[in-house]
Amino acid sequence: MTQQPLHIPVMKDQIIEQLSPVIERSENPRYFDGTFGRGGHLREILRQFPKLTAVAVDQDLEAIEYGRKEFSTEIQEGRLLIEHLNFANFTEEKFGKFDAMLVDLGVSSPQLDEGRRGFSFYHDGPLDMRMDATKGMTAAELIATASEEELNEIFHQLGEIQKPYRVTRAIVHDREKEAFLTTRQLASLVERVEGWRRKGFHPATQYFMALRLSVNRELEVVQNSMIPLIHGLTARGRLAVLTFHSLEDRIVKNLFKEQTELGTPLFKKVIQPEWAEQKKNPRSRSAKLRIFERSGNEPPTY
Ligand SMILES: C[S@@+](CC[C@H](N)C(=O)[O-])C[C@H]1O[C@@H](n2cnc3c(N)ncnc32)[C@H](O)[C@@H]1O
Known about the structure:
Blueprint lengths: L11 H13 L5 E4 L6 H9 L4 E6 L2 H10 L1 H5 L3 E5 L7 H4 L2 E7 L4 H5 L25 H7 L2 H11 L6 H10 L8 H12 L10 H11 L2 H14 L1 E11 L2 H13 L4 E3 L9 H6 L7 E7 L8
Parallel strand pairs: 1-2, 1-4, 2-3, 4-5
Antiparallel strand pairs: 5-7, 6-7
Helix pairs in contact: 8-11, 9-10, 12-13
The structure holds S-adenosylmethionine.
The site of S-adenosylmethionine has 23 residues, from α2 and β2.
């Protein structure tokens, strides 16, 4: 019996197709994975390109612990370095240059599916939502301390909810009596106030997404990290960025377009998953892939 992977890597074939020319032309190809997760993309890239060495980081310690165990052979062989790091802290000085890079944004399936990580409205757990559970404010702390206005702004801007006011008002009212400490408490409040409007679409979906983006400062990280990553590319090296949120995609699209000094986006249009993948893996449905190619002369191949 084949085991279901913990996280199904999204758009794996399309990403490898775009990265393979720059990996294949290099004598000693180097690959940087900014979002290791459960190593789905990394595993396949290491398998397909035997000469390649890689550096993989993740801000989630559980992902890193998993990686150190499951990739122990590659680590011992000196093919792979795994580090607990937010890719926003990537510097070329520390890690060197790479022919190919991947940033696969958002959360992994284990993060979403484990109630105790606090991302899920289906599995009860502490209202946490931090990808890096070693630091920063939890969603519970955010809910407890943000003003009504701040909460409205988070839900409106990050969750793209037109009118979050009734939910926000209820949160601010209810938190006076009892703190919001669990995902179920918050999900129940949204269910009560909004009701189920669309079959199969939990009314708390966008509220949870907005809180997650805010707790992990996800848009800020994308905004600030693309240029340092591009600086870490070799001449004609490629950076692939996979987003799952329209605001993130917009930031990536604009940043790529503006970097005319450093290189160009490989395609004007965004690449999306094939229909077959969307059907097989519903989590891939909102995925958008963009590739940036660094300018410069390709190194000669001998
Ligand atoms: C969608 S999953 C990546 C899945 C991976 N490509 C795979 O195939 O298994 C996203 C992962 O990136 C991590 N992550 C998200 N933002 C990050 C950041 N700014 N720095 C480092 N890791 C991050 C999350 O903790 C999560 O483990």
